[in-house]
C-alpha cells in the first residue's frame, strides 16, 4: 500500500506532463469542432431556413460545377459578373464535379474544411506570434468564446458563426488572412524559403482580396501592421514584404471573373437595409466586445514596457472608423465590430499568455477558475447551437427544404425566370433557375436596383393586374414564386389568375404564367 500511495502521485504527474501542449490543442479542437464537423459531413447543416443566404452560395457552386471557366450569373438572367466566383469556390466546384458531389453537400464539406483549416492556422500563427506552446489553445478559445453574445453572422468568427457559416466567403477570408499573418511573421524572422514566402504572400493577398473584399481589408490591415511594427526585422525586409502585399493587391485586379475594385467602388442599393441594423449601434458594440475590453492589458509588454502597436494600431483605426460611420448613419458600420473584437482578442491572448496569476493561485482556486471557464464555454456552445436545434424542430414539423428544392428544380423548365418573394427566392435560385431579382446588394450587377424595385412593385397590394402583366413582359418572367409569410390571401388569389400553381414543402407555391395572360 505504501508503494501504491507513493507511486500514484508520480504517475499522475507523469500523465499530466505527458499531455503536451500539442495534444491538449488537438483535444480542444475536437471538443469545439467534432460535433460541428460531423454535421457538416453527414447532414445538411444550417440549410433548412429558407431565408438563409446559404442557398445563395449553393447557386454559385451549382453554376461553377456546370461551367467552371465560363459561368453565367448564378442568380440573375443577365451577363453581369458575380463577385462569388472566387478561387476556393472554383477549386471546390471542380472537386465536386470530379466526384459527383451535389452542391449542398459540397458547400457543407467546405464548412468542415474551413473548421479544420481555422484550427490549423490558429496553431501556426499563435505559436509564431506569442512564442508560447500553450498560446494556440488560449487564442483559439478566446477567438471562439470571448464574446458578449454568441450570434452567428457572416464576418464574425465566434462559435455560433462556425456552426452554420463555415463555408462562407467571409470565413474563407478569415482563415486565409490568419495564414497571411503567419507567413509575414515567418518571412520577417526566418531566412528559409524567403523568396518563396514573398511569392506566396503576394498570391495569398490576391486570393484574400478576391474572396471577400471587406474581410480582406480587415485581415490585411493586420498583416501590414504585423510587418510595419515588427520590433526586430530590418526595414528593408519590412518594405519588401509590404511590397509583396501591394503586388498581391494588383494581381487581384486581373482576376478574369470580376474586378474586385468594381465591388469596392460600386454604389449600394439605397433601399436595402441589413437585417442586422442594430449592429451599427454603439450599445451593440459594447455588448459584443464586453469580454475583450480586458485586452487593453495586453497592449503593453509588462517586461519591456513597449506598446504593442501591431495590434493597438488596428484597434484604434477600426474603432475610429466605426464611430465615424455610426455618426454618418452608414449601414456599413455593422461590419466593423468583429474587426475591433478580433484585434482586442489578440491583445487579450497576450494578457493571458503573459499573466502569472493562474500559476500563483492555490490549487483550489485554479480548480474553481477552470470549472467556471468550462461552464461558461459549455453554456456558450449551448446558446450558439439553439438556432440549429430550432431548425431540427422545424424539419420535424414542416418537412425538409432540400427535397422540396429538388422538386422545384425538376418542376421548373430550363430557362425559367421567376418573380420570387424573400422567403422563397434563395432556395429557388439555388436550383440553377434564375429569378428576376434577389433581395440583397450585388455591387457588380447594376441592373439589380431596377430589378428589385420591379419585384417589390410586382408583389405590392396596390399594383394592378395590368401593371403586373407589363412587368412580366419587361422582365420576361415565366413563373411566380411566393411563400405564405410574404403574401396576403388577397394578393395570392390575384396571382393565381396568371396560371396553374403547385405547392411544395412549407406551402411555398409556384405559379406557371400562361402566355395568353401576358400578351
UniProtKB/TrEMBL annotation:
Transmembrane segments: 24-42, 101-126, 133-150, 170-188, 200-229, 241-258, 279-299, 311-328, 340-358, 364-385
Keywords per UniProt: Membrane, Transmembrane, Transmembrane helix
Protein name: Glycosyltransferase RgtA/B/C/D-like domain-containing protein
Organism per entry: Parasphingorhabdus litoris
